[in-house]
Amino acid sequence: MTTHPDSRPIITLQGHILRQQSQFPEASGTLSWILSALSISSKMIASHVRRARLQNVLGAAGAENVQGEQQQKLDVIANDILLRTLGGRDGVAIVASEENEEPVILREEADGERRYCVLFDPLDGSSNLDVCGGVGTIFSILRYDRRARDAHASVLQAGAQQVAAGYVLYGPSTVFMLTVGQGVDMFVLDPDFGAFMLVERGLRTPAANKSYSVNEGNRRSFPAGFQQYLDWAQDNGYSSRYVGSMVADVHRILLKGGVFMYPPTKKAPQGKLRLMYEANPMAMLIEQAGGKALTAPGQRILDVPPQDIHQRVPVILGSADEVDHVVAALTAAA
Ligand code: AHG
Ligand code: MN
Ligand code: MN
Asked: How far apart are CA 156 and CA 142, in angstroms?
């Protein structure tokens, strides 16, 4: 028996970005340079995530590590890494993080140069760290508009304006999902080489899958339509899957299909998830993979006009047919 060597090309994230960039002769390479900062940040964060528990246990007593430094929470460490790597890129005008009250202006736009705003949730699902569960980083990239009156105004753009979005999942492997508006591509970090390798191009989310992902502990405080949807789904043989880390939950939906929801609750009338750092980038990925992402029946997340950089929105996203089932229940209950 003869075995045929695998002849598929080996493409890294960096190579993929350069190839995409070469299709746009007018592209200056600025966006590629920003994506490479996100790539190196995620490798650094992945390494901290892997060692998180060891550092807690093997560090010196109290909250100090072996160097006598205060041990920082990983949200803060991840945030610092992103601020420092992106801070070194000329193409970044403004960064806005879930962890910072205000957006940070790094530099204004010079004539003839295009600059960007990068928004991120440095560590999503951080409560899962204690139990060795999947956590992630979510990012959203917008064009910087130098006519905007201040930093807030320049980042307050609807999700439909995003030029790129993605997330990194720090799980059993480190996965980098990216869209620049031409479908969704998936990369996995090869720990031996330290490079993200392209494993799937133009990923499509299945149109249907009998699976929902929601914090059912809040069920009684959901609006009636969501409760009726859950009754319907349970009568129809649906499975429930919920990690409590948006990156891990949405990753499953992207690959396997189903619907992810964070509905309004009595305590949180706009739900819990943040429009700019969580809902918008995930909505762009899901739509680019052929799914749907709504905040209410007939209202795309990507069309929500942002009022505040930290605002929250209800989220319903995933396989087109599964989102339609939720919409049908919400509409019937209205
Ligand atoms: P973060 O860790 O960035 O604050 O985000 C946590 C979010 C999100 O990852 C997840 O979908 C949601 O919180 C879970 O909330 P509940 O615990 O209320 O279900
Ligand atoms: Mn989060
Ligand atoms: Mn977070």
From this structure: 9
